[in-house]
Design goal:
The chain is of the alpha+beta class. It has 11 helices and 20 strands. The chain starts with 5 loop residues before the first strand and ends in a 20-residue tail after the last helix.
């Protein structure tokens, strides 16, 4: 390396911190800017498909994740009331390189931060909100608002991993973020309720025209994620007021508030959007800053972490002289093709499936029929799960084809 490579990363969520960790461990000087004063603790995504687990393993933290998280053992699709439509079991023992994992998003970010902060070439700056970006042929910069005013920081590259409201994306493209917003909210809760006594799987999707919901084990001590849809016109107060009634309608046992303990409650708008470009010169986008999808199937989180794996390949290839700047165009093309060809259509089908009639869904839904076959033997289950690896992309295959050097 002719000089110490430098990368500025906007966003201290799992995507930004994971990118920083992967780069810093290879000698890159990394500065992470985060608009908030700490990691976001709201109940958000917690399911990592094999393509995401692969990147987490590459970062050397998978064992720490599994100390508190776990491999998904079983997942099911159910009718309202709990009857199984189909189920896949034994997923934690499948003979595949990387298995589906469960671990809350904020805890993953904290774990990555613990590994990143001690590194001498890594810096994390809180309360730094990116408001502008600029670049020339050799460097890129961000301007960020902080309590002390405005600062300007630069490096060889800038990467926006700063989420759905990305300051980097807005600085590049303004309000242009192609796609649409769903006409329903997703309400996410973390709740202590004994679902094991109802023979609940680690993960399940309950199909119903009105009372669809997703439920997933979070920890080993009885904490569950329960997420359901609501009318987007409802106020936050109305959403909270409706929660006891919704729980009675959707959860087995029709519990009353004295039968469960609510740990967290949040709500989010759902989007299907993707930028027209994930690279503009020396500025890149990854994760939710680049593309959004509804949470059914965990494709947004898995796809975002897969972005990080691909972009790490590209940047390390450039810094080591194994690739030219044009590999970033390939990153842009490959990652958008994965979003447009896999993540967007599959997550859309997954979302629409939720509001179908669980009584008849298996008769016409090819995906559920595939899941039913996967539930019959280990070989079919392994093939079913390995499909998720299509969300990843090994960019080292483009090494040694340089056109433009750093």
């Amino acid at each position: 390396m002719a000089h110490t490579p430098k990368v500025v990363v906007a966003g201290a969520g799992p995507a930004g911190l994971l990118l920083a960790l992967l780069l810093a461990r290879e000698g890159v000087q990394v500065t992470v800017l985060e608009a908030n004063h700490s990691i976001d603790t709201r109940p958000r995504a917690l399911l990592y498909g094999p393509a995401a687990a692969q990147v987490i393993r590459r970062a050397g933290i998978v064992n720490k994740v599994l100390e508190r998280g776990f491999f998904i053992r079983s997942m099911a699709w159910r009718k309202l009331g709990g009857e199984k439509i189909t189920e896949i079991t034994g997923m934690d023992t499948l003979d595949i390189p990387d298995r589906m994992m469960a671990y809350p998003l904020n805890l993953l970010a904290e774990l990555i931060l613990e590994a990143l902060v001690p590194l001498p070439n890594a810096t994390v700056l809180w309360n730094h909100r990116v408001t502008a970006v600029s670049q020339d042929e050799g460097q890129a910069w961000v301007e960020a608002e902080t309590h002390g005013g405005t600062v300007k920081l630069g490096g060889d590259f800038v990467v926006g991993c700063d989420g759905a409201r990305s300051g980097v994306r807005k600085a590049l493209f303004g309000r242009n973020f192609r796609g649409y917003t769903w006409d329903k909210l997703i309400v996410t809760t973390n709740v202590y309720y004994d679902l094991d006594k109802y023979d609940w799987s680690d993960l399940q999707w309950t199909l119903h025209p009105d009372n669809w919901f997703v439920s997933m084990r979070i920890t080993k001590d009885g904490l569950w994620r329960v997420a359901y849809g609501e009318d987007a016109s409802l106020t936050p107060e109305q959403l909270r007021e409706r929660l006891p009634q919704r729980f009675r309608s959707i959860l087995p046992g029709s519990p009353t508030p004295d039968q469960y303990r609510l740990a967290n409650f949040a709500w989010f708008r759902m989007h299907q959007r993707c930028v027209d470009r994930m690279r503009v010169g020396r500025i890149m986008l990854a994760g939710d800053a680049a593309h959004l999808c509804n949470p059914m199937g965990g494709l947004g989180l898995t796809g975002g972490i897969a972005d990080v794996g691909s972009l790490t390949d590209c940047l390390l290839g450039i810094f080591s002289g194994k690739a030219g700047l044009d590999i970033l165009d390939k990153y842009d093309r490959v990652r958008r093709e994965i979003y447009n060809g896999i993540i967007d259509p599959l997550s859309t089908v997954n979302m629409n499936r939720m509001s179908t009639d669980g009584e008849t869904a298996l008769e016409t839904d090819h995906f559920l029929q595939m899941a039913q076959q996967a539930g019959k033997d280990c070989e079919s289950a392994a093939e079913f799960m390995m499909q998720d690896l299509a969300l990843g992309a090994d960019m080292t295959r483009f090494y040694n084809q340089p056109e433009t050097r750093l």
